[in-house]
Amino acid sequence: MDDCMNDDTSKSCRSSEKKERRKSKDGLGDECKPLNRKESDMFRKLSQRSFAHAQGLSLYEDDVSSMPTIAAYLRSFTLPGPKENEEADGRKRAGLGTLIGVYLPTVQHILGVQMFLRLFWIVGIAGIGESFAMVLLCCICTFLTSISISAIATNGVIESGGAYFMISRNLGPQFGGAVGILYYFANAFATSMYLVGGVEILLMYLAPSLPQFGDPTARRETDVFNNFRAYASGLLLIEFCIVALGVTFVQFFAPVSLACVVMSILSIYIGAFVTSDAASPEICMLGNRLLKHFPSDQGNLSSWCTKAADGPIWSAYCKRSNSSAAVECDPFFNQNTLSITAGLPGFSAALFSENFPASYMDHGEVTPGVAGVNSREITQDIATNFFMLLAIFYPSVTGIFTGANMSGDLKEPHKSIPVGTIAAQMTTSFIYLSFVLIFGGTIRGALLRDKYGESLENNMVVALLGWPSKWILLIGSFTSTFGAALQCLCSAPRLLQSIAKDDVIPFLRGFSSVTKQNEPFRALLVTTAVAECAILIGGIDYIAPIVDFFFLMCYCFVNLVCALQTLLRAPNWRPRYRFYHWSLSLLGAVMCLFIMFSTHWYYALVVCILCATIYKYIEYKGAKKEWGDGLRGFALSTAQYSLLQIEDSVHSHPKNWRPQLLILLKVDKLSEKVNTKALQFAHQLKAGRGLTIVATILEGDLADHQTQEMVEKVKLRLKHDIEDSKVRGFVQVVVAEHLAQNVSTLIQSVGIGGLRPNTIMVGWPYSWKDSVHQADQNYWNFLDAIHRAATADMCLLVPKGLLEFPDSNDRVQGTIDVWWIIHDGGLLLLLPFLLHQHKVWRQCKLRVFTVAQMHDNSVKMKQDLQNWVYQLRIDATVDVVEFADSTISAYTYERTLIMEERTRLALDLHLSSREFLLEPQLLADRHRRRLNANRDDSSPDVGDQKKSTMTTELSCHSQFKGLQSEDAETSESISLSSKPSADGAEQNDGKDDITERDVHEDANENGNNRVRFDMSSTNEVTKKHKFARLDHDKVRKMNTAMKLNDAIKEKSSDSQLVILNLPRPPKMRHGLPNYMDYLEVLTEGLERVLLVRGSGKEVITMYS
């Protein structure tokens, strides 16, 4: 229905439509943009329009405010084809079909200079059998690659860049940039190859009278290469000027070049059936050796192809002695006769059989294994073998990306590219294979091995096969090489400009600019310089192998892309071309690698190293691009497989245990330096390896938009911090209304499978004493983290003095001291070993201390400890510290009294019964007791136990309600109960399994040990009387902490890091303030401390 329902609105609608049409005409309208624009902007605009159309969909009115209806979405949907690209770029597109747009340009690019200059020579050297297999191998390789190209090109729109665009969007910017640069070099070097080939045709066959270096008849390699370099540089300059004028001038030569190539091919086909002995040019043979053409006044072959004395051939093989007038001739000359035979006799079975076997020769040989004389016989200028010839011929089958490069100019790319590319490849394959049979079946083998036609008065051998005149092939081959070089010189700068425009390689940004005529002039200058460097190599036989490896590397990656996407079954892998299979693509990639390493393995290594270097450079320096590449899908599939293989197991072997860190951070300005130090320490501990998850909990509502923005900012900030600290891990930001209650949820839910964190690291709260007085929740958050970690049976790391820890660039010398009080599974010894692997701590020595009490044999204890450390293969010195004196000093009572006063203030926070029931250790103990009761089905007291459990819960509620009322009524005094079963758990393992009722019964039974502080009458009570009323268990704990601290300061005052056991946290929250006092006394006066608590499971073993 029409949006404009009345006259008042119709005017505004028409004016808005005019504005929208004007915007779209100027390229500013979002609706006419392709889908690669930001979809969020499009959806927002569509949603505003969709609201009026959704009145009949009341159920979805709320959704329309943020998302468009299907009708509105479909009305705005535009596929970026030629028409849309034309509107977006402001220039008219060609809208070409399959024949003009893909087939003919691809045929023109594939049929290169090698077909006329080298294919016949390859047939003469390798024979019909091996040369046919060689050409077939190359054609199968490119055919399989064409299938992969067809699949990739029809899986979306292919923009400029061809192979670069395909690989970068499927394997990521790293591989795409690396292969794109190689593909650029392939086109630049191909320009030089075509130009040098054209110069060879020009100087040797078309215009041999042009000025040249040295004697043209001598054909010295140095002079020949200098001629090639000089004239090819001149042609390169001409082509540079043509390309600089614009692509229109380049396209002017394309139909002319293509017509010449087609005429040349037809001329060969006709000439193969027309040629005969009578019409064939003749050659002079001495036995099985082909002789060069000797100049003669009469001009015909019979006038000089004789053994007449003092004739040109006789003079070449015989010498007359000046003193005795004796004549010495080459034995081969005397033993064989001269014969004049037709060089191109036409098809015959005898000739086909003669040319079928191979005749590989080394440099300077006239026949296999026989050295010749270059001045009189046709010899080879390079050593030949199958793989050498394969490297020379392979550039003849390249050019299959031409159709994909023109996808923007095609009317229906998804139809034209597969049909045109595969048809062109099959057509050229038929031409090459048929030419092998034609050359081998119509031309003498000796003449086929005459690379430069020196036996035919310096005529091109293939040109003499042409009908009706040799000039058709000479002119056609030269124009085809010139046109092919022009196409390569035109496409290579555009490829470089595409790479620079994507900004994946920072130092190429300057080449992203174009002129007013949309010509990449800067890239053209660089491409011309690269092509000139390739021209300086010299001959076409030396440039062609280099071109091979650049193309082969590109084709290999294209095949890998198709195979990878097919095997991963990515949801976005939906090519319209259906006739492909991953095995064919994989076979194509293997064939590319085989050709690379079988021809010139050192070239292959250089190209691979160059590709790897560019890859690492882009990974390190390149801009971050997210193109939904296939490697991410491969990583996900690999991760899924690995996670299933290492599924979380309770009984994992200690050899496979490694710390998987969950780092809990507080995100605010005051904690920036501490967080940085914590991340750097994690990097040193993990040495950049293993799982690390950095997590933080924010208080707020996830449905709030400001909270969502804050979450994104915190994520970006934490990601930046872990990158700066070189920590390889993940960031997790959790939003919760009640922070303390979600610490346990975070600990339980973070990670997946066997990659769940097993170790939590949380920083020491430096202002915890002030936090108690200020009722700050940060203090309780730290204690909750310790509490929950201990409950979840996870290892716990608490670094104290983080600001004093070394940076990643520092080098620490000294000792790392381990104070091993309790065996917690060996984590206390594993951590310093891991730290020692990092360069920061590598120069530190490890010392292990343990404590011997009165009943321990310290000598035997030290021997056992030394042996155990040795068996663990850890290089460390050991020492045993004796704690013989059990006397408690008065200062210990004073510290305990101070702790009690701080605890009284901490309890002003009024712990509720609900908070008490949420304490995880009590819940765990209650659940464990219930399970034990349910398992004991045969016990006669099962009913009593259930009743007792219910009574316990009711008692818990009633007692804490009474405690709350008591706190509310009493303002001057607060009772503090000592609970040995909770606080003293680390000394007595038998008190671990208790219920809530047990805890409260212990508290009631210890009523005599309670301490009441009346703040108004503090000065009236003597210190001795206060000491007598202190809980003795707390005094003993304080005494242990103080003695351990004295021993540590005495032995490890100069240590770079002290690692010691973290005592077990209390089970109930109201015991945590005392726990913090113990830890403070234990670590007092130490610069760097790492408190460690293991889970009790063995994490280190002496077995291999």
Strand and helix map with partners:
Layout lengths: L6 H19 L13 H12 L10 H4 L5 H7 L5 H8 L8 H13 L3 H4 L1 H35 L9 H44 L14 H25 L1 H28 L7 E5 L2 E2 L21 H6 E3 L6 E3 L1 H5 L2 E5 L6 H6 L10 E3 L2 E2 L14 H8 L8 H4 L7 H30 L2 H4 L12 H5 L4 H33 L18 H15 L4 H29 L13 H18 L1 H21 L8 H16 L15 E4 L7 H15 L5 E8 L5 H20 L5 E7 L2 H11 L9 E4 L5 H7 L2 H15 L3 E6 L13 E7 L6 H11 L6 E9 L5 H14 L4 E7 L7 H17 L6 H5 L2 H16 L6 H28 L5 E2 L3 H4 L12 H10 L5 E2 L10 H7 L2 H21 L4 E5 L10 H11 L6 E5 L11
Parallel strand pairs: 8-9, 8-11, 9-10, 11-12, 13-14, 13-18, 14-15, 18-19
Antiparallel strand pairs: 1-2, 1-5, 3-4, 6-7, 12-19, 16-17
Helix pairs in contact: 2-4, 6-11, 6-17, 8-15, 8-17, 8-22, 8-23, 9-10, 9-20, 9-21, 9-22, 9-24, 10-11, 10-20, 10-21, 11-20, 15-23, 20-21, 22-23, 22-24, 22-25, 23-24, 28-30, 33-40, 36-38, 40-41
